[in-house]
# Entry
Amino acid sequence: MRKDTASPLRFQPRLAATAFHLLLLAAVLALFAGRKPGLFRSQAILDLLPGFYSHVSNFALSYLFFAGVGFAWLMTGVRVHALVLAALVLGGVNVAYELLLPLLNTRDPMDAVHGVAGTLLGLAWLLILRRFGLRRAPDPGT
# Structure
């Protein structure tokens, strides 16, 4: 016997929003892969920001984690203030780890800056996605 239960997903992403989200994730992964010389390392980025690839891992990990988890949260109907609070916590943890906890790490303020930038860009994308890229999920009982 099948038991009907309500879906925890209150919203569905629009197709274009999902495609753009995946494109952003792929672009950030390509930046992360650029840490090593090769196909994904951009000379234009190095000319603009000479030390970027030294800190890109913090940027990429913060963005990928926040945008990935946040995308799922948006489907469940998490409110904006919860997203902002999560971004503040992630940014604060990043800064605290980079500046105060030298465990398996050297203190590096630029790593903290890049981590916070990744979190803020993730938050900006999630706010745009919430405003323009979601629609109410259909009621499974109908």
